[in-house]
Design goal:
Layout lengths: L1 H18 L8 H20 L6 H25 L4
Helix pairs in contact: 1-2, 1-3, 2-3
Length: 82
Amino acid sequence: MTSLASIWGILALIGMVVGFFPCFGALNWINIPFAAIGLIVSLMARQSSTEAQRGQISTGVIGCSIAILVGLFRLFIGGGVF
């Protein structure tokens, strides 16, 4: 479960970076829910993990959180929300 959380966070960050390109801004509409699900999975994995596994799980939590915040920021700036 720990590797799934960290991989999910890394994939969310990759989707965020691709969503920054002008023609791919609509990708944020897919990436934000993907990152939100990854954040939920990472937080659930953190509850049932040992102290040694929390570093990998923190990668997933931080990566998904950054992807959500930056994706929402990109949608607001690009006019994709209003």
